[in-house]
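Why do we bother with holo predictions? Because pocket geometry can differ from the apo form. Keep that in mind while you read this record for NDP.
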Amino acid sequence: NRRVILKRHVTGFPSEDDMEVVAGAARLAVPPGSAAVVLKNLYLSCDPYMRGRMSKQNRRSYVPAFVPGSGWPRCEQSGGIWAPGFQGWRSRLGMTGWEEYTLIPNQESLSKINHPEMPLSYYTGVLGMPGLTAYAGLYDVAKPKKGEYFFVSAASGAVGQIVGQLAKLTGCYVVGSAGSDEKVKLLKTKFGFDEAFNYKKEQDLNAALQRYFPEGIDIYFEHVGGTMLDAVLLNMRMHDRIAVCGMISQYNLEQPQGIQNLLSLIIKRVRMEGFMVSDYLGQHHKFEEEMVRYLKDDKIVYVEDVAEGLEKAPAALIGLFTGRNVGKQLVTVTQE
Ligand code: NDP
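The structure, written out:
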């Protein structure tokens, strides 16, 4: 049973050397009469929040720290197939380590996959945690109205591509920022954003935002923090709102950087609200049904970036912090 372990707690930017693929003892025996099952992991999700768990001191993170050496702890959504005890195999979603097989002590902790006709990998992204983040963050926190000016950063990623398209379906004017020309093209041609720009090519983010939002921004869906948030603060409209989903530019820093314009919150009477997807798990069924319908009707399109094999998982995770991923980053672990 090959698995990825964290070798040591990380300070600053993570490296592949902080993680290691090891072949561990199986420990996969299901005690007779227990509710335990073995999950064969097919697709593992790579998510930015994992960086917070790799730090020893993670007061600033929203999830508890990992313990090095003991394997990648149960943290990870994975599309998997549940083997014993069934006539045939069934797809399930659960929290596992980064490993080929996981002993799940209680099968009730696994979520059902209600649409096995959809690609199973989608359950780590558009039909899983990132999709629900976009859905709940948009409708419950940002609360968009038709005609509003909507801006999202890290726009081509797992959450960004979905939230931008949902905002378009609501009738917003949608602009996204991303870190390469390839991603900008994707946003405009594949995801149907009204505009997009490569923030790495802009000398002055404030000027870029003024160019795309001459009348100001109604909703900023925040993914990156730092200098982008600072420029957005100057460009918000009166009484509008910032939904704070993440701040990835800060996750590898020891001290927060880049914010000088918080006074704009007062001047513009802007509401800035953070949220966590874990508070919205009760919406999963409604979300899954709506999102499957959108995908089947081609109202939402979805791009994933697939790394083949568990040994690629460390590089895939680090790639989230350099912008190497184009679309939702996931890893195939074993064959379906
Ligand atoms: P993505 O698929 O968007 O991947 C991360 C992207 O962030 C990279 O591809 C890169 O894109 C961008 N990025 C990386 N470093 C920087 C930087 N220093 N400055 C600016 N951009 C950077 O990830 P997700 O969609 O999974 O997550 C997006 C955000 O949402 C993260 O902040 C994450 O923590 C947060 N999140 C929050 C949740 C919640 O419950 N609140 C749940 C899920 C995610 P580019 O090339 O454009 O720079």
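Residues 129-142 form the longest helix (14 residues).
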